[in-house]
Amino acid sequence: MLDAMTLAEALTIEDMRTAHERIRPHINRTPVLQSQYLNDLTGAELFFKCENFQEAGAFKVRGACNAVFGLSEEAAQRGVCTHSSGNHALSLSYAAGRRGIPCNVVMPRTAPQAKKDAVRRYGGTITECEPSTSSREAVFAEVQAATGGEFVHPYNDPRVICGQATCSAEMLEQTGGVDAVVAPIGGGGMISGTCLTLSNLAPEVKIYAAEPEQADDAARSFRAGHIIADDAPETIADGLKVPLKENTWHFVSNFVTDVPTVSEQEIVDAMKLTWKYLRVVMEPSSAVPLAAILKNPDLFRGKRVGVIITGGNVDLDRLPWTLG
Amino acid sequence: MLDAMTLAEALTIEDMRTAHERIRPHINRTPVLQSQYLNDLTGAELFFKCENFQEAGAFKVRGACNAVFGLSEEAAQRGVCTHSSGNHALSLSYAAGRRGIPCNVVMPRTAPQAKKDAVRRYGGTITECEPSTSSREAVFAEVQAATGGEFVHPYNDPRVICGQATCSAEMLEQTGGVDAVVAPIGGGGMISGTCLTLSNLAPEVKIYAAEPEQADDAARSFRAGHIIADDAPETIADGLKVPLKENTWHFVSNFVTDVPTVSEQEIVDAMKLTWKYLRVVMEPSSAVPLAAILKNPDLFRGKRVGVIITGGNVDLDRLPWTLG
Question: What is the annotated signal peptide range for this record (chains A, B) (predicted)?
Answer without folding.
Answer: none
